[in-house]
Write a structure and sequence with these properties.
The chain has a single domain, classed as Jelly Rolls (Sandwich). It is 20% helix and 31% strand. Strand 5 and strand 6 form a beta hairpin.
Length: 187
């Protein structure tokens, strides 16, 4: 089963709602790939022995791994943490997340600065490129178990928008420009 993604409706309602536009406007995996978002669907029930996951980790240099349970019962200051994750930001490195249980949303900005909501569920592994504006929230189930992967030691430093002068953002914009051959305006 492929991941689901769609253009979001801007709304001040609960961030954990789907926020579909009316009518719904789904986004293809190809469109996500054009933005640098990578996707695999794996077997979350056997991640310790998953040959495909091993190959992905090896080929992309993901040497560090940890597990994270996000839910009100297991996270101190849950609501505040969720608000922090939902603040638009970039990272200097890729963000790699593999959903083992539960579900949640990663929102990314497209080339026209529109939000695309990506609904990850058990088995979905996504890679967000360094420099892409994004945010994260749980859905209405309020639970997700994630594997976090990193190249080398874990660095998870969010740089809140605006970050147009950050080297990772400049490199990301350059990569999009090279793919499309058209200069992009800064957002």
């Amino acid at each position: 089963m492929a991941i689901e993604a769609w253009f979001m409706e801007e709304s001040s309602e609960d961030q954990r709602l789907p926020h579909h536009r009316n009518p719904k406007e789904f986004v293809s995996l190809d469109h996500l790939a054009e933005l640098g978002v990578l996707y695999w669907h794996l077997n979350p029930n056997d991640y310790d022995n998953d040959e495909e996951l091993r190959k992905i980790r090896e080929s992309r240099g993901y040497s560090y791994m940890d597990l994270l349970d996000l839910c009100p019962e297991k996270v101190e200051n849950y609501e505040q943490k969720l608000r922090n994750f939902y603040t638009e930001h970039i990272h200097g490195d890729e963000e790699i997340r593999y959903c083992l249980e539960g579900s949640g949303y990663f929102d990314v900005r497209d080339k026209d600065d529109r939000w695309i909501r990506i609904w990850i569920k058990a088995g979905d592994l996504i890679v967000l490129p360094a420099g892409i504006y994004h945010r994260f929230t749980l859905d209405m189930n309020n639970y997700i178990k994630l594997m976090r992967l990193f190249v080398g030691e874990p660095i998870w430093t969010p740089f809140n928008r605006p970050q147009e002068d950050h080297p990772a953002r400049k490199e990301y914009i350059k990569s999009l420009t090279e793919k499309s051959g058209v200069p992009l305006k800064a957002h």
